[in-house]
Amino acid sequence: MSAAERPQPGVPRPYAFPAAEWQRFANGLDVLVVPLRRLPIATALLMCDAGAECDAVTLSGVASLTAEALAEGTRSRDAVSLADTFEQLGGSLDTGVTWTHAECSTTVLAGRLSDALQLLAEVLREPAFPEGEVTRLREERLAELLQQRTEPRGLADDMFARFCFSAASRYARSEGGDEETVARLTRDAVVAHHAHFIVPSRSRLIVVGDVDVDGVMQLAESALGTWQATGATSPAVEVTPAQAHRQVHLVAKADAPQSELRVGHPSVTRAHPDFHALSVMNAILGGLFNSRINLNLRERHAYTYGAFSQFDWRRRASAFEAATAVRSDVTAAAVREILHEIDRMRNEPVSASELSLAVDYLTGVFPIRFETSAAIAAALAMREGYELAPDYYDTYRERIAAVTVDEVLRVAQTHLDPARLQVVAVADPSAVRDDLTALGIGAVREYDATGAPVTSP
Amino acid sequence: MQLPLETYRLDNGLRVTLSEDHTAPIVAVNLWYHVGSANERPERTGFAHLFEHMLFQGSEHVAANEHFELVQRAGGTLNGSTWLERTNYYETLPSNQLAIALWLEADRMARLLPAMTQEKLDTQRDVVKNERRWSVDNQPYGTWWEKLPALAFPPDHPFHHSLIGSMEHLSDATLDDVAEFFRTFYTPDNAVLSIVGDVDPVEAKGLVQRYFGGIPRGTGRPSLPDMGVPPVFGEWRREVVADDVMVPRLFLAMRTPILGAADYFSASVAGAVLGSGRGSRLYQQLVRERQLASSVSVFTFDLAKGSDLLIVDATARPGVDGQTLEQAVGEALDAMHERGVTSNEVARAVALITTDLVTSLQSAQSRADKLSQFATFFGDPSMVNEQVERFQAVTADDVNRIARARLGRDNRASLLYVPRETPEGDGPDGAAWDDVGTKPEELA
Question: Which fold has domain A247-454?
Answer without folding.
Answer: Cytochrome Bc1 Complex; Chain A, domain 1 (3.30.830)
